[in-house]
């Protein structure tokens, strides 16, 4: 594999996450937005514990902290996906169109190819 091929492959890398619709909840736009903020706070707290920014003397070891950060990040993602379902089901928003527009915006800004 040449360097150019390797570079081209790196530019096309993406992460696909598939998360379920939570069928035992009746989320509203407001409750889901508040939940995103709560989960984002827990993510920030996990990062703060790693960096010793929470005022506590004891820090988590990096491996333990990164595991906590990853778990909190997935919680944020799940809640964001839940809000996507709310927007689609309760407000008729076509998220496929929104996602395509988002990717085009990223390309236009030069963040990806």
Automatic annotation (TrEMBL):
<protein>
    <submittedName>
        <fullName>MazG nucleotide pyrophosphohydrolase family protein</fullName>
    </submittedName>
</protein>
<dbReference type="InterPro" id="IPR044548">
    <property type="entry name" value="AF0060_NTP-PPase_MazG-like"/>
</dbReference>
<dbReference type="GO" id="GO:0016787">
    <property type="term" value="F:hydrolase activity"/>
</dbReference>
<feature type="domain" description="NTP pyrophosphohydrolase MazG-like">
    <location>
        <begin position="29"/>
        <end position="108"/>
    </location>
</feature>
<dbReference type="Pfam" id="PF03819">
    <property type="entry name" value="MazG"/>
</dbReference>
<keyword id="KW-0378">Hydrolase</keyword>
<dbReference type="InterPro" id="IPR004518">
    <property type="entry name" value="MazG-like_dom"/>
</dbReference>
């Amino acid at each position: 594999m040449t360097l150019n091929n390797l570079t081209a492959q790196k530019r096309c890398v993406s992460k696909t996450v598939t998360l379920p619709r939570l069928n035992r909840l009746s989320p509203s736009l407001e409750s889901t937005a508040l939940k995103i903020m709560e989960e984002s706070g827990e993510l920030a707290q996990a990062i703060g514990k790693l960096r010793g920014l929470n005022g506590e003397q004891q820090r988590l070891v990096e491996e333990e902290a990164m595991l906590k950060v990853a778990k909190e990040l997935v919680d944020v993602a799940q809640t964001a996906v839940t809000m996507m379902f709310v927007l689609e089901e309760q407000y008729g928003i076509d998220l496929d169109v929104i996602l395509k527009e988002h990717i085009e915006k990223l390309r236009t800004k030069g963040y990806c190819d």
